[in-house]
């Protein structure tokens, strides 16, 4: 693709030879001649002197070394994401049903649906137009899948779950399995409570590999429109997550908790049950959230606290050994002074 055609496709102005051939995309340190790369933060600008890329996406008015073509974007990372789409297309199943698939007679399949080998589609399932179901997926009874979805190999969608349009469910994910509901009995044993609810994924939700989203005893677990969930995340029964939220790897959310819109949970964040996290809350990785969090808060640590307070506490903790040495020295000096004072008094 010529540089001018690439810039036109990205709706960005450019500097350099309009007929420069761009053959692919790559990170700055890995790029080779013919590649397009990008810089979105000033701390990476020195890498422009070292890159072998032929062109780079940078912010407007950002200078680049001689011989390096520049494509100017107010948001280089987003423009780079769009550029990847020009050079790479993910694997797509051909439309149609593989002969080894097992499909219930009353299942409803939309136009252009693709179903791969060894898929099981149970009674009452509805699959929207152009959705792709990859190998070994199991859809339990009464599942509803929207249009233009991708369900990758070996994921499982349990009964009555609803998957909205344009959702991605990655390999090994389990949607709608039983929530962890057990009633303690007087003899110390546990009674398994049936989980009659369902899971709803709204439009544009991504679910990472080996993530689990459980259904509740009654009601529903709901993941809001556009929310992105990483690999190895546990969302328990009855959780409600607002639109455009982000859950990174190894997050665990206990039952009955509600997250507002645009909540961001860093890696390994744990959230206790039956809490409310307001809109635009951010939790730093490995935080333990034990109480409600108001909208707009950035929290960190265990138990969680406001991020500035956590930073001060972290600094103080690193100073603790020196502080202990100082206290011991002062205690010793105090004991010496007290002993000296007693000797003086005795004289």
What tags apply to this protein structure?
single chain; UDP N-Acetylglucosamine Acyltransferase, domain 1; 2 domains; ten-stranded parallel beta sheet; 27% strand
Overview of the structural elements:
This protein has 2 domains: 3-87, 3-Layer(aba) Sandwich (Udp-n-acetylmuramoylalanyl-d-glutamate--2,6- Diaminopimelate Ligase, Chain: A, domain 1), CATH 3.40.1390; 96-308, UDP N-Acetylglucosamine Acyltransferase, domain 1 (3 Solenoid), CATH 2.160.10.10. The protein is flat, with a radius of gyration of 28 Å. A hairpin with a 4-residue loop joins β37 (298-300) and β38. It has 4 helices and 38 strands. The model has no long low-confidence stretch (mean pLDDT 96). By secondary structure, it is an alpha/beta fold.
Compose a concise summary of this entry.
Helix content is 17%, strand content 27%. By secondary structure, it is of the alpha/beta class.
Strands, helices and their partners?
Layout: H1 3-10, E1 14-15, E2 24-25, E3 35-38, E4 55-58, E5 69-72, H2 76-87, E6 96-97, E7 102-103, E8 108-109, E9 114-115, E10 120-121, E11 126-127, E12 132-133, E13 138-139, E14 144-145, E15 150-151, E16 156-157, E17 162-163, E18 168-169, E19 174-178, E20 182-184, E21 190-192, E22 198-201, E23 206-207, E24 212-215, E25 220-223, E26 228-229, E27 234-235, E28 240-241, E29 246-247, E30 252-253, E31 258-259, E32 264-265, E33 270-271, E34 276-277, E35 282-283, E36 288-289, E37 298-300, E38 305-306, H3 307-318, H4 320-346
Parallel strand pairs: 2-3, 3-4, 4-5, 6-9, 7-10, 8-11, 9-12, 10-13, 11-14, 12-15, 13-16, 14-17, 15-18, 16-19, 17-22, 18-23, 19-24, 22-25, 23-26, 24-27, 25-28, 26-29, 27-30, 28-31, 29-32, 30-33, 31-34, 32-35, 33-36, 35-37
Antiparallel strand pairs: 1-5, 20-21, 37-38
């Amino acid at each position: 693709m010529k540089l001018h055609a690439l810039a036109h496709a990205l709706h960005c102005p450019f500097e350099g030879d309009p007929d420069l051939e761009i053959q692919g995309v790559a990170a700055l340190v890995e790029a080779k001649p013919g590649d397009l790369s990008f810089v979105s933060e000033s701390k990476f600008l020195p890498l422009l002197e070292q890159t072998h890329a032929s062109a780079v996406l940078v912010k407007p008015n950002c200078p680049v070394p001689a011989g390096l073509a520049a494509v100017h974007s107010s948001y280089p990372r987003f423009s780079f994401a769009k550029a990847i789409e020009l050079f790479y297309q993910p694997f797509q199943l051909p439309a149609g049903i593989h002969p080894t698939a097992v499909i219930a007679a009353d299942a409803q399949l939309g136009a252009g649906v693709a179903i791969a080998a060894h898929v099981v589609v149970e009674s009452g399932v509805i699959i929207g137009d152009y959705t792709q179901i990859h190998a070994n997926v199991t859809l339990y009874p009464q599942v509803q899948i929207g249009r233009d979805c991708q369900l990758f190999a070996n994921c499982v969608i349990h009964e009555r779950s609803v998957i909205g349009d344009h959702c991605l469910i990655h390999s090994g994910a389990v949607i709608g399995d039983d929530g962890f509901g057990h009633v303690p009995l007087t003899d110390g044993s546990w009674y398994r409570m049936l989980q009659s609810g369902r899971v709803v994924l709204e439009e544009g939700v991504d679910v990472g590999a080996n993530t689990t989203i459980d259904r509740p005893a009654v009601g529903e677990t709901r993941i809001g429109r556009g929310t992105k969930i990483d690999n190895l995340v546990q969302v328990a029964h009855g959780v409600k997550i607002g639109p455009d939220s982000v859950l990174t790897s190894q997050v665990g959310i206990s039952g009955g908790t509600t997250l507002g819109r645009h909540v961001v949970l860093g890696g390994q964040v744990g959230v206790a049950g039956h809490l409310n996290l307001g809109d635009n809350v951010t939790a730093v990785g490995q935080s333990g959230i034990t109480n409600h969090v108001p909208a707009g808060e950035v929290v960190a640590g265990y138990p969680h606290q406001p991020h500035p307070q956590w930073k001060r506490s972290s600094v103080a903790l690193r100073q603790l050994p020196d502080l202990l040495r100082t206290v011991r020295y002062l205690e010793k000096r105090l004991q010496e002074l007290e002993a000296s004072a007693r000797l003086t008094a005795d004289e």
